[in-house]
Amino acid sequence: MTFYYVEKSSFTIAMTTPRVLVTPAAEATIDLLRDEHGPLMFHQSGGCCDGSSPMCFAAGEFRVGGADVWLGTIHGCDFFMSASQFEYWQHTQLTVDVTKGRGASFSLEIPLGVRFLIRSRLFTEEESKHMEPVLDGEEYLARTTAS
């Protein structure tokens, strides 16, 4: 899904290009997990056991800070990535999907016999002009704890 600035009559509607999307299959898995665990969050793993995978946690279970970047929300869940990894991925739109098979991680979906995965593509030049803003983890925490 791509959003652009749309001019209509004498006003402009500002729309942004989301950095993270989610498939309907992943949304269904998120719904199952939310029913069991309550509010959820994602953090894009930077490697180790399961390569680079989106990890799903109960909200607040994974501590984010200044070394993390908030990319947006997917299906009501905040999505984070390490700042160093974001340097490499900042030009790509991520889509969270789900597939059968067990991953080797601590992500909540593993007992269901599925695992989340990332599909990615480069943003077009036009999309890059209208990117959804990111927040570093500390900015995110300051905004959410102040509300």
Report on the structure:
The chain is α+β, with helices and mostly antiparallel strands and 147 residues long. It contains 4 helices and 10 strands. The chain has helices spanning 24-37, 83-89, 125-128, 137-146; strands at 6-8, 11-13, 20-22, 40-44, 54-58, 68-74, 77-82, 92-100, 114-122, 135-136. The strands form 3 sheets. Strands 5-4-7-6-10 form a 5-stranded mixed sheet. A 3-stranded mixed sheet has the order 3-8-9. β1 and β2 form a beta hairpin. The two termini are 30 Å apart.
Write a compact overview of the structure shown.
The chain has helices spanning 24-37, 83-89, 125-128, 137-146, and strands at 6-8, 11-13, 20-22, 40-44, 54-58, 68-74, 77-82, 92-100, 114-122, 135-136.
Chain oligomer state:
single chain
Q: Shape from CA axes?
A: globular
- What fraction of residues sit in β-strands? 35-45%
**Alpha-beta content class:** alpha+beta
String of helices and strands? EEEHEEEEHEEHEH
Helix content: 10-25%
The separation of the N and C termini measures: 30 Å
Gyration radius (Cα, Å) is 16 Å
Mean pLDDT: 87
Report on the biggest sheet.
Answer: 5 strands, mixed
- Widest β-sheet, arrangement of strands: 5-4-7-6-10
